[in-house]
Amino acid sequence: xxxxxxxxxxxxxxxxxxxxxxxxxxxxxxxxxxxxxxxxxxxxxxxxxxxxxxxxxxxxxxxxxxxxxxxxxxxxxxxxxxxxxxxxxxxxxxxxxxxxxxx
Length: 103
Fold this sequence. Notes:
This protein is an all-alpha fold. The protein contains 5 helices and no strands.
């Protein structure tokens, strides 16, 4: 009986345990960047259109990941919204990749 009670408590505790989220994947982010971002931001992240941030210098990357992902989701200036194009996970993957461009 005690074993059953302990198993019940263990099951109950794991049911309410926080869900572990997976870390953002820069390799996946690179694929999305190359598909959607490279034409304006360049292969090295230095920007090829006017007013595009220089990611290699860290421009625009001082904000938390979720804030940058929200900017990608909603668009800004001449950058279009990626709402409905990239999932939240893909947006965070792109942010992780952008951070690899800093030199």
